[in-house]
Automatic annotation (TrEMBL):
Keyword Cell inner membrane set for record: no
The Sulfotransferase domain, residue ranges: 47-299
Main location as per UniProt: cytoplasm
Cellular localisation: Cytoplasm
Protein's recorded name: Sulfotransferase
EC number(s) given by UniProt: 2.8.2.-
Similarity comment text for this entry: Belongs to the sulfotransferase 1 family.
Upper lineage: Eukaryota, Metazoa, Chordata, Craniata, Vertebrata
GO cellular component, one term: cytoplasm
Keywords attached to this entry: Cytoplasm, Transferase
InterPro entries in the cross-refs: P-loop_NTPase, Sulfotransferase_dom
Top-level EC class as recorded in UniProt: transferase
Length: 307
């Protein structure tokens, strides 16, 4: 769903960082907003699989197991740079060269669709016939502190997002929900609150880091896949952060630096749990914890900030 060659970039070679535009109260970058009319009327198919996360909650740890579960574990598959872009597309990605909604309309079923949209902005076609068809959704959440740090570094290198500013400035924006796709707090709670009324598997990044094999088995059960342990071994190997970081299909080194400047920060940076301790001051951590308690009051949703 992303351009793989500089030639694909076309007129967007010259551009400035986008501004945030509110869509039903949720801040969205301007070029996502320009395609919103197509997103809101997007037609889901009965066998679609939707992958949802807040930005930088590590999509790849959802994408890779699904590619390998659905397409096999041949060693060539995870090494081919365009594989994920053929098999999985972002719903909201804008040109160039083709909007994600258009790419998806041309994809054969079953489709795997990625989105950062909060639950309330997901096209209604995903839920309209929920009782009759087996639309499946996998949501991955990551603890807020690590998510904020990862999003900050991504914003520094990702020219398709607004300028993040300094770490203290970005942390203020993150807490206030003044970042692309809005409030982390509302996002994770919104999907959590709907997980029992829809076919949603809610996963936690920290659980994958703790025991990847266990979480692969959760995916297999949800998707009704029955695989030999030898195949699971290969999936676990290919989906480890260390292997993916060296994989051009995962590390986005094929993306032009006009979009993703990996000299500023690598697309796949650390993938650890607890890196927030290297960025939050004691005062910032205490302030964040206070806000967190207020915003997460009344929910049974809990996160681990270390494992």
């Amino acid at each position: 769903s992303s351009p793989s060659k500089v030639e694909d970039v076309g007129p967007m070679m010259e551009f400035s960082r986008p501004k945030l535009v509110p869509i039903h109260g949720i801040p969205i970058v301007s070029y996502f907003a320009e395609n919103w009319d197509n997103v809101k009327v997007f037609q889901a198919r009965p066998d679609d699989l939707l992958l949802a996360t807040f930005p930088k909650a590590v999509f790849l740890f959802l994408s890779y197991p699904l590619i390998l579960l659905n397409e096999g574990t041949d060693d060539r598959i995870p090494c081919e740079p365009t594989t994920t872009r053929r098999m999985i597309a972002y719903m909201c990605i804008p040109p160039p060269p083709t909007p994600g909604t258009e790419q998806l309309s041309q994809m054969d079923s079953p489709r795997v669709i990625k989105t950062h949209l909060p639950f309330q902005l997901v096209p209604k076609s995903f839920w309209e016939q929920d009782c009759k068809v087996r639309k499946q959704v996998i949501y991955m959440a990551r603890n807020a502190k690590d998510n904020a740090v990862s999003y900050y570094h991504f914003g520094r290198m990702n020219k398709l997002d607004p300028e993040p500013g300094t770490w203290p400035q970005f942390l203020g924006k993150f807490i206030a929900g003044n970042v692309t796709f809005g409030s982390w707090f509302d996002h994770v709670k919104g999907w959590w609150d709907k997980k029992d009324s829809h076919r949603i598997l809610y996963l936690f990044y920290e659980d994958l880091k703790e025991d990847l094999r266990r979480e692969i088995h959760k995916l297999m059960a949800f998707l009704e896949k029955d695989l030999e342990e030898e195949v699971v071994d290969k999936i676990v190997h290919h989906t480890s952060f260390e292997v993916m970081k060296e994989n051009p299909m995962a590390n986005y080194t094929s993306m032009p630096s006009v979009f993703l400047d990996q000299k500023v920060s690598p697309f796949m940076r650390k993938g650890t749990v607890g890196d927030w301790k290297n960025y939050f001051t004691v005062a910032q951590s205490e302030m964040f914890d206070k806000v967190y308690r207020e915003k997460m009051a009344g929910t049974k949703l809990t996160f681990r900030t270390q494992i």
